[in-house]
Specification:
Order of helices and strands: HEEEHEHHHEHHEEHEEEEHHEEHH
Protein name: UTP--glucose-1-phosphate uridylyltransferase
Strand order of the largest sheet: 8-11-9-10-12
Number of domains: 1
Number of strands: 13
Oligomer: single chain
Shape: globular
Largest sheet: 5 strands, mixed, barrel
EC number: 2.7.7.9
Strand content: 15-25%
Enzyme class: transferase
CATH class: Alpha Beta
CATH architecture: Alpha-Beta Complex
Pfam families: NTP_transferase
Number of helices: 12
CATH topology: Spore Coat Polysaccharide Biosynthesis Protein SpsA, Chain A
Radius of gyration: 21 Å
CATH superfamily: Spore Coat Polysaccharide Biosynthesis Protein SpsA, Chain A
Distance between the termini: 44 Å
Family: Belongs to the UDPGP type 2 family.
Length: 322
């Protein structure tokens, strides 16, 4: 994008703000990462290991998410955890004995890899306590976030570092002043697996105005094939709505229900919902098959592992039964 393209883009986005000023709102510096789930789809592997710590090649999934937040300028990260999640905190803490052993062996390469996670961001932790759903997990971050816009990153979705989805969403939020979710086109037969958005097109190609949201609709009732994926940049007004949101599907406080209500609130008072339609590289680690696909995709593109893995795959795949 040239500077003139960016200027035109911002001018068009400014037209989505009823104030019409188009001036950037307060910076987004905080991220909330819900990580209190039980990971039942991966049992028995997650009996004693949090699903967020399952390795994706040679880093735990949660590290990819924190690194994405940091690349987008979010250096204050709050993880919403639960029981038996101590290994999350340990991973982002110093491992003195391990570091000393690696240093004594002169293994600088592995030492640097171990130390990377120690200094990624200013990390904080709070426990959700009762498993009352994603909406409740986000609400647990209210005291830490305060009255500032903030990002929410779900650990089941990994966004390729070459695609700056979160940075784009932050830019849209600052100009419109509303809340922004990430959307992705899915096959209509798969919409029942996602939250689904009803939208109005805008003058900006990848930005839509959201008029409603439905959690896991029947394909026949889905308002579109635009699914909500696990990235949000939210106005703090969402906390006020979540406090009043009644339990919904699964007797849990659904974030989708709160966002549906927020979409009906005037932008001038913290309402308004927008979507950034993402067409880049997303890796779903939410179930076993997609997790395996993610590991293979990411490993196949690595400079250190890719050449040998791709060669092995070419030899291995033709011999597989149908």
């Amino acid at each position: 994008m040239t500077s003139s393209d960016i200027a035109a883009d911002l001018a068009a986005l400014a037209g989505l703000n009823p104030a019409g000023a188009g001036e950037a709102g307060p910076p987004v510096t905080k991220a909330v990462i819900p990580a209190a789930g039980l990971g039942t789809r991966f049992l028995p592997a997650t009996k004693a290991t949090p699903k967020e710590m399952l390795p994706v090649v040679d880093r735990p999934a949660i590290q990819y998410v924190v690194e994405e937040a940091v690349r987008a300028g979010l250096d204050d990260v709050l993880m919403i955890t639960g029981r038996n999640k101590q290994s999350l905190e340990n991973h982002f803490d110093r491992a003195w004995e391990l570091e000393a052993a690696l240093e004594a062996k002169g293994d600088r390469h592995r030492l640097e890899k171990v130390q990377e996670s120690n200094v990624l961001a200013d990390l904080h932790y709070t426990r959700q306590g009762d498993p009352r759903g994603l909406g409740h997990a986000v609400l647990c971050g209210a005291l830490h976030v305060g009255r500032h816009p903030f990002a929410v990153l779900l650990g089941d979705d990994l966004i390729d570092e070459r695609d700056e989805l979160l940075t784009r969403m932050i830019g849209v939020q600052r100009v419109t002043g509303g809340s922004v979710v990430a959307l992705m086109e899915v096959d209509p037969s798969q919409v029942h697996m996602y939250g689904c958005a009803a939208i109005e097109r805008t003058s900006v190609d990848d930005v839509v105005r959201i008029t409603g949201m439905v959690e896991k609709p029947d394909p026949a009732d889905a308002p579109s094939n635009l699914a909500v994926i696990g990235r949000y940049v939210l106005h703090p007004r969402v906390f006020d709505v979540l406090k009043e949101t009644k339990p919904g599907r699964g007797n849990e406080i659904q974030l989708t229900d709160a966002l549906q209500e927020l979409a009906q609130v005037p932008q001038e008072v913290g309402g308004g919902m927008f979507g950034v339609v993402f067409s880049g590289r997303r890796y779903d680690t939410g179930d076993r098959l997609d997790y395996l696909k993610a590991v293979v995709q990411l490993a196949a593109e690595r400079e250190d592992l890719g050449p040998d893995l791709r060669k092995w795959l070419r030899d291995f795949v033709p011999g597989l039964p149908d």
